[in-house]
Structures are given as structure tokens and as C-alpha cells.
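@channel sequence for tomorrow's demo:
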Amino acid sequence: MSLSGYTLPVFACAAAVAALHWLRHGQPLSVTSVDLIEPDVIAEIPIEQVAGLSENSALAITRSDPGDNLDLTRNTPIWALVQWFEGEGENVIIKGGEGIGKQLNGEGKAAIYGYAQRLLTENLQRLLTPGEKITVTIILPSGRSLALRTSNSAFGVVEGLSLLGTTGISQPLSTPDQLTAFRGELQDKASRFENLVFCIGENGLDLARKLGINSEQLVKTANWIGPMLVEADLLGVKEILLFGYHGKLMKLAGGIFHTHHHLADGRREILAAHCAMLGLQSSDIQTVFHSPTAEAALKHLRSLDHSTASHWVNQVYGSLAETIDIRCQEYIHSHSDRGMNTTVCGSVLFDRDRQIIVKSKTGGMLIEKLC
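C-alpha cells (generated this afternoon):
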């Protein structure tokens, strides 16, 4: 049985609580209690080190433990620097230090999102007396190097990791137990809706909500797209909109239905093949094939369109989207006992700036129904 750990915001909060405790009592804590809020659970988090830096500041360190999860932040140190301050404004001010990413579309704002902000603020406010104010600076010493191994830059977060998520429980997105949990959510929503939206991760879920899609019709799949499509078909779901980042969803066009990079990639081969089928020049196909990321390949196609008044992005991504739909139908049919009456699939792909690149013909029809 797999064991869940906690997300990065929980450890950041635990370190901040320990540092505040030092400021008030001059004593280190070996364990702190953190109210996760989502879910309604109290977590006991070990504290590795605490030090007072001055009368007005203290530093505490924890280490990430994501549980039974393929998570590159495992055992990474998380620091929290807490300082008293006087002045106007909120009584808890949260800042991003070294290793916390910056949002390119947020004018360099620290990538500390809603749940992390709420978790830190609510837990720390309870420990302050009226009139007391603190600044909390979260530091991830390894964040800058770890970020190079993530897709953060694809979503406009640079120079570090983001404190992202909607819960304190770390979800092991690549373990069979997590697939069981996703299937449970799917079964619940399939009993209430005939049309559902599959999102691989938080970015898709967030963008779908902003477009006006009912949150109750959103289903998180993580990398288990294939099994989730088959499950939806068995449950009698009529229509599925696949809504995701192009660097993930394009794998489906190559018949890759478990999208974790540890198992399979194929993005550059898939993208280059579609470019070749559509007649792109050999030198440009070479550039696409050797691009370090899907985003870089998209950027090259966009630059071609700009310089030559061509339409390579629409052609290539249109071909990808239609192929995704076809491959999904084939996958469901090959794994289903329902004959030809299978779930209809459509796809919508977006880029690093969360701008929609393309909708397949069916994807465009479905998104009009859902929004």
C-alpha cells in the first residue's frame, strides 16, 4: 500500500511556525503541528534545525517528504526566515526567497499560490497577538537547480520551484493507489454528468475554471489518461474533452497513453513527424526535432509564421489535435466491450502562457457546450 506524504507548502509552513516559536520563546521545536485546512487534518512535521539570527529574526529548516510519490523534491531542505516588523499592512507578509520561482506573467511575483498563501497565513495568524506582525521568507536552497528538471518554465515560472497545489496531502500521481482514487472521483462525476473534462494537472484545472467550465465536470487524470478514458467509457460517459498543455497531450498523438516522462516521451518525434507530413522544409523539421522542449518547437513554428506569413502552427497543431482525437477513440475501442458506441473525445491544447493553441473539431464543439 502506498503512503501519502505532504506537499511543499506544508513543510514551508512548519518551518515558519518553528521560527516564530523561537522568536517568542527562544527555544527550538523538534516537531510542529500544521493545520492543513484542505483536508481538515493536523499534520505533525519534524523540524531539522532552528536558529535565532537576532532579536527580531529566526530561521528554521524542514525537509520535504512527499510519501510514496515520484517527486523530485523528496528530502530537499526548506527554510523559513521569520522577522518581526512594524508598519502598515497585513500581519503576515509572505515573500519568496532564493529557490522560489518567479512568475513571468506576474511581473516577477513569487510563485507562491493560493493554497500556500492561505496555509501560511492562517496557521501563523493564530500564533500572533493583536498588533504583532511578521514577514516570512520561504527559501529553497536547491530550488533553482531542481526547477531545471521540471516543466515550470513551460508555465512561465523561472529561477525556482513554485508552491502550488490545492491540498496539503501529496498525491502520488504515478502509483496505482492514486489511479484508484482518480477512478473514484470519475465514478462520482460520471453518475452526474454525461460530459466531462480531463485535465492532467493543476494548470489545466485552473485554466478550465477560468474559462467558465463547471468545476464539478473537471476530472484530474495525472498521467493515467488511457485507463481513465476506458473507465469513462465503461461508466457510459458520452463526451470527454481532453484539456491540457501541448507538451503533454501531444504524446497521445503517438499512442502514448501513460504520459509520465519516466515511462515514455516521444514528443519531438511526434511533432517532427507531423511537420514532415505537412511538407515543412527539412531544415525546419531538423530544428523542431532538436528543440529542447515542446515550447521551443512551438516558438520556432510561430517565428516561421511571423516571418513568412505562413500558418504552420495552425496546420501542425490542427493535425496533432485531430490525431489525438482519433487515437483516443481507437484506444477506447480496443479496451472496451461496448462495441462501436464508445465515448466521443475532443481535445484542446494550450501553451506555457495558458493561451489556447488549437481546438480539434470535436474539441471546439465540446468546449462551446461546457462554457
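heads up for whoever presents: The CA atoms of residues 278 and 315 lie 8 Å apart.
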